[in-house]
Amino acid sequence: MKHLKFSLPILLGLFVAFSACEESSCLETSWYEDADGDGLGNPGVSQSACEQPDGYVADNSDTDDSGNTSGAAETPTSAFDEFDTDNVSISFNGSTISIESNGYPNHESYYFASTNPLYNGDDACMTSTMPTPHTIDDETMSFSFTVDAAPTLAASPTETGLGTIGLCTSGAPIYNDREGNNMALDELLSNTLDCGGGHGGPTGYHYHTEARSSDLGLSFDDEKLAGIMIDGFLLYGRKCNSTGDYPSDLDSSGGHTSTTQHSDAENFYHYHIINDFLVADYIALFSVNLQGNF
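Above: the chain sequence. Below: its structure as C-alpha cells.
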C-alpha cells in the first residue's frame, strides 16, 4: 500500500509532462495581418501560431494593407486586347470575366492537318522522329472558364493538375510540366514540341513551354503577355515591363506585384514565366503552384 502511495505522484507527474510535450509539439508558423482582406499580408504586423489566426495570412508581400491596391487590384482590361479574337471570346460581367476559346493556336504548326494553311511540315523546332499522333484539326476542343475581375491571393497555393491551367494569347490552352499518366516532360517528350512550345494530344493541342521562336507572335524571352491562368492572374514573359529586365523579386510561383504595359502605372499581382530551364534548353510556361483563389 505504501508503494502505491509513493508511485501515484510520480505517475501523475509523468502524465502532466507527457501532456505538456504533446501540447508544445506543434510547428509554429509566422502569420501576417491582412487588414484589407486582399489575401496579402502586412510584413510589419505578424504573429506566430500553430493554426492560422483570423485576419492573418501566410503571405507577407502587401505593400499597402490599408486598401484594395495589391493582389485584389482589378486586372487591366487592355491586356485582353492581346488575345486573338478569331479564337478567343471575352465577356466582362462586372465582378467577373468569362473567357471562351476554340482551343486553336493562331500560328503555323506541324500538328495542323496537312490540308490546313497553317500546316508546317518542316517545323525546325521539332527534333523527334516520333511526334505525337494527334492533329490539331482532329483533336482540339473548345473550353471556357470564368475568373474574378479582381483576383485575390489564396491563404495557401494550389498544385496544378493535368489538363488546362491557363489560356495563351494565341487561343490554345496552357498545360503544366507533366504529361498523360503524370509523366515528367523529359527531353524525349520535349522534342515533340513545335516552335510554339506545344504539341497535339488526345484532349487537343496545348502548350507546355515558352515559344521556341520569336517569329510566331508569342512570348519569347521578352515582356509580352503570354496568357491568363485559371485563377485569374495574368502570365507575362520572362522579363518585366517595369524594369525591362528579368524580375528579381518573384515568389515561388513566378509572381510579384508591379506595373505592366497594361496597367496604366498601377501595381497589380501577376505571374512571369520563370527564367529557368525545365529540361535541355526548354523553359516551362508554368510548372509551379497557382497562388490565387478559384
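Residues 1-23, 67-71 have pLDDT under 50 and may be disordered.
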